[in-house]
Specification:
This protein is an all-alpha fold and 374 residues long. 76% of the residues lie in helices and 0% in strands. The two termini are 37 Å apart. The relative contact order is 0.15.
């Protein structure tokens, strides 16, 4: 009798608390602190000389933070109000890179989490399913062959990613799809688009074009500004809101097709619509940051290990962990050589995520002994 009462009390407590937990709250607060610390480090260094205190006071300057005209200029491209030189340097040159990193990090993390649920495979990500390589090929094709379309590069990258996944879905379709067929088709399409990418380098004559293309396919936040924020923020927000709303459907998909169908879910329709949301999120990130390797694959695993597999928690965790890890990685990419090695070089953020994400994923593989189906 006592045991039954204890179980009932625990169930009642869980029901009152809902899906959120103290661990999730602490995890999100830690990620938020990392994002703020990384952002402040990012704005503290640059070619324009100012002290760290001056840079931080400029970030929190009420004259800019609460200036509606300034935000109208930042977010909608209106004419900027008159600002001090420090404010121009911090708010127009350094902070936009932080905001682009936050948007790209959140979008890639959410996209990877959705793809892993839709395919029920821990190895799924925008890269594995061909979305990233399709976008990269569209970028190279534009830069090398159709250079006149360069101003539309972000949109063409998004279109390339979407086209690649549609090809994956068409190959995997046999009266329906399965997680295994989707991943295998993704691997094949990914290899084909990567071969096409390498082939495009042989047609490029301009060294500057080659360097731009390499930076894009590696993943870089160098030179990003408010224009990139304006390009990515709306599609990323739409994708994130829909993903959060679809967390329950993702949980049901993880139970398997038969169970999901027995619960009344139209599996193929839900799978296709959620995949479209993941493509939108990945395309928004790739359009402004290029192909950032391992990010969409590793971040959901980090969050899952901390907050659990419930997608209501996982999505919220990715929403905070993605920006934190992207901003911190970009701080390392931009400031390691100038601050530590005293040279003005910086590397693409995709190099840092690859160097950190690859070994971490190998560690997960050895720790869990078996990886694959969720």
């Amino acid at each position: 009798m006592g045991s039954s009462e204890a179980v009932a009390a625990r169930s009642s407590t869980e029901s009152r608390q809902g899906w959120y937990s103290r661990t999730l709250v602490l995890f999100c607060l830690t990620c938020l602190a990392l994002t703020v610390a990384g952002g402040l480090a990012q704005v503290s260094f640059g070619t324009y000389s100012m002290t760290i205190g001056q840079a931080w006071r400029t970030v929190f300057d009420p004259g800019v933070v609460f200036n509606l005209d300034a935000w109208n200029a930042f977010l909608f491209g209106a004419e900027a109000p008159e600002m001090s030189t420090r404010s121009v340097v911090v708010w127009n040159l350094r902070l936009p890179r932080v905001f682009v990193g936050m948007i790209a990090g959140a979008a890639l993390a959410v996209s990877g989490a959705i793809f892993q649920a839709v395919t029920r495979n821990e190895l799924a990500s925008p890269f594995v399913l061909g979305v990233s390589s399709g976008a990269g090929f569209a970028v190279l094709l534009t830069l090398v062959v159709f250079s006149g379309l360069a101003p539309y590069l972000p949109f063409l990258a998004a279109g390339g990613g979407a086209l690649a996944f549609l090809v994956v879905y068409a190959i995997a379709w046999q009266g329906g799809t399965s997680p295994v067929r989707l991943v295998l088709a993704g691997v094949i399409v990914n290899m084909v688009f990567q071969s096409l990418q390498r082939a495009m380098f042989f047609f490029a004559d301009d060294l500057g074009v080659v360097q731009t293309a390499i930076a894009w396919t590696t993943g870089s936040l160098t030179g990003t500004g408010w224009e990139e924020v304006r390009i990515a923020i709306l599609p990323a927000l739409i994708a994130i809101v829909v993903a959060l709303a679809g967390a329950r459907q993702l949980n049901v998909l993880l139970l398997g097709e038969r169970t999901a169908q027995s619960l009344g879910m139209r599996v193929e329709r839900v799978r296709f619509l959620l995949s479209a949301v993941a493509i939108l999120a990945a395309s928004a990130a790739i359009a402004v940051a290029g192909i950032v390797g391992f990010f969409g694959l590793v971040v959901p695993h980090i969050v899952r290990n901390v907050v659990g597999s419930d997608y209501r928690r996982l999505m919220v965790g990715c929403l905070f962990a993605g920006p934190a890890l992207m901003v911190v990685a970009d701080v390392g990419a931009r400031l390691f050589f100038p601050v530590v090695m005293n040279t003005p070089r910086q590397v693409p953020v995709g190099v840092v995520t690859g160097l950190v994400g690859g070994p971490y994923f190998l560690y997960l593989m050895r720790k869990q002994q078996s990886m694959g189906e969720l």
